[in-house]
Automatic annotation (TrEMBL):
Pathway: Amino-acid biosynthesis; L-threonine biosynthesis; L-threonine from L-aspartate: step 4/5. One of its GO terms (molecular function) is homoserine kinase activity. Residues 65-156 form the GHMP kinase N-terminal domain. GO terms for cellular component: cytoplasm. Residues 218-294 form the GHMP kinase C-terminal domain. It catalyses: L-homoserine + ATP = O-phospho-L-homoserine + ADP + H(+). This is Homoserine kinase. Its EC number is 2.7.1.39. It comes from Alteromonas aestuariivivens. Belongs to the GHMP kinase family. Homoserine kinase subfamily. Its main location: cytoplasm. Gene3D superfamilies: 3.30.230.10, GHMP kinase, C-terminal domain.
Amino acid sequence: MKTTRAYAPASIGNVSLGFDVLGAALQPVDGTPLGDEVEIVDAEQYQLTVAGPFAHKLPSDPDTNIVTHCYHYFIEEMVKAGHTVSPVAVTLFKNLPIGSGLGSSASSIVAAFYGLNEHFGQPFCEDVLLLMMGELEGQISGSVHYDNVAPCYLGGMTLMTGQAAPVTVSLPVIQDWYWVICYSGISVSTSAARNILPKEVPMATALTFGRQLGIFVHALHSGDAKMAAGVMQDVIAEPYRKSLLPGFDDARDFAMQSGALAFGISGSGPTVFAVCNDRHTAEAVEQWLTENYIQNEDGFSHVCRIPSQGACQQQVEE
């Protein structure tokens, strides 16, 4: 009986200056897993079991779970492609909080598709899998976008192309940077966070957005950390979304006054992130956020790096 276990890391969507087109995977420096896992086992019929610290936050009906939707979609595409299919039992280990801004739904989706693809002998290529992942993510958020699923699947920092192939390109990262993330413990709906945004932006804002993103990509390829950090301001979403995040302005003020290079909202929030160029500053910012930004027992914070690897197979315990 074949068993496959897959892990998909948390991620930062937008990374402040790249609304819907930029994302980065996360890996805590202390080795703490920060992502969802699935275990897939050959079975007589499909079934889903949910476990993990945030399992109780998911709907009780497995038919409504996004992993079930991933399974049915994957099998449909397998049949269309002429591949042999067989039922499996899936266990989702829900380690990421829902509505956290850490790519929680993307992590479940990526772990499911990556695990299924590995379990059935890698029938689909990277770009086809990414298109599947984006389609399922769109069912949750209301629009197809890859700023969480791409870095979650591939690792690193990714820039979305808007094309069918390649769906995304990998960007260099500043190796000296530490990324502090802090989840406050409250939930912010992705669709609600999108609805609060204006339907149109002024010409000056659009020009600033394009200029910042262009400079940022150039700075990463040039290894110019100062230039890259200097344009990490969100002119599209943060002015509106920060009203959904209690304590955001105080947190940003402390981080920047303490030496952080940049501070922003991870995805739709409420998770925030700070970019620091040394671990001492990162740990000081993390400690303050833990004491002042977290609002309940579900909250947490980590000092992270951006890993080069995204989704991966995990060793199956005997």
